[in-house]
Amino acid sequence: MKPTCFRNPIATILVSDPEHDKDVMAPSIASFSSRGPNPLTPDILKPDLTAPGVDILAAWSPVAPPSESFYKDTRSVKYNIISGTSMSCPHVSGAAAYLKAAHPSWSAAAIKSALMTTATVLDSKKHADLEFAYGSGQINPLKAVNPGLIFDASEADYINFLCKQGYDSTTLRIITGDKNSSCGSTKPGKAWDLNYPSFSLQLEDGQEIKAEFTRTVTNVGSPNSTYIIASFSPLSTITVSVSPSTLSFSSVGEKKSFTVKVTGPKISQQPIISGSIVLSDGVHKVRAPLAVYTFLPGSVYISSSASQNKKRFKGSSSYHRNRMLRHT
């Protein structure tokens, strides 16, 4: 016979109080959360975002066993506590649905942009891998509802992106399902003009720093507003310039473009240099991370903090684990 405490379990959920939080390491990215850079398209910074993903209480299919012992565990439960991207993804999906309800006409790219540019920036001192660990930061759905500006992208933008990735018209049509899709005269090259809310510059070790990104933002905030664009250079030896330095809008839905140039000397053995581009009108703060890193031809990037984070996770308290994040 099972004890009464097992037949009628009782749990207490306490509200977190950041001001009195004794766990100085929280929140942080879980050790098992995979890191960047993007192995397929280095010109796009990955991950995009982070969200709660460790020890998450959620609904569970009663026909699935609550443990990994698929054949031996015959229990049936309605809820379970698990960890992984499968937990952080629902958080972000729910936030995306929340934004779609508030802005039915927004595209998927616009929703992604709003979530990324308003994300809470995580403490770089806790993460040796910087943006390769947390991307733009932790989602903040409330701020994302009113981002001020969005980096939108159309189907044509992504077709141009795929063509620059080396797709020909035949493979392109398989993806689009449109027999009229064509790469035309577009040649393979860098994806620096894809209207993505982040910037990624991969350099071969010993290569000179030189890149130019183009971006277009759409005003979804105040009809009459002026945004000042500031760049936070990763290192004093690297120059990040933005042109124009201000963007003025006179209506909602108006679009403005700007260019980001990154220049500097040759760099070697530099895994990641972190910076950002911030557009602000005094009310909204639109932030896009910038990552510059080198690679050795034929090598694979290995996280410099994987083992350190693993030890930290193993020895952390249950409360700490509850505040650890997974990327998405």
Automatic annotation (TrEMBL):
InterPro entries: Peptidase_S8/S53_dom (IPR000209), Peptidase_S8/S53_dom_sf (IPR036852), Peptidase_S8_Ser-AS (IPR023828), SBT (IPR045051), Subtilisin-like_FN3 (IPR041469). PROSITE patterns: SUBTILASE (PS51892), SUBTILASE_SER (PS00138). GO terms for molecular function: serine-type endopeptidase activity. One of its GO terms (cellular component) is extracellular region. It is found in: Secreted. Keywords: Hydrolase, Protease, Serine protease, Signal. Its main location: secreted. The keyword Hydrolase applies. One of its GO terms (biological process) is proteolysis. The keyword Protease applies. Coiled coil: none annotated. Residues 26-137 form the Peptidase S8/S53 domain. Residues 193-292 form the Subtilisin-like protease fibronectin type-III domain. Belongs to the peptidase S8 family. This is Cucumisin. It comes from Prunus yedoensis var. nudiflora. The lineage of its organism: Eukaryota, Viridiplantae, Streptophyta, Embryophyta, Tracheophyta.
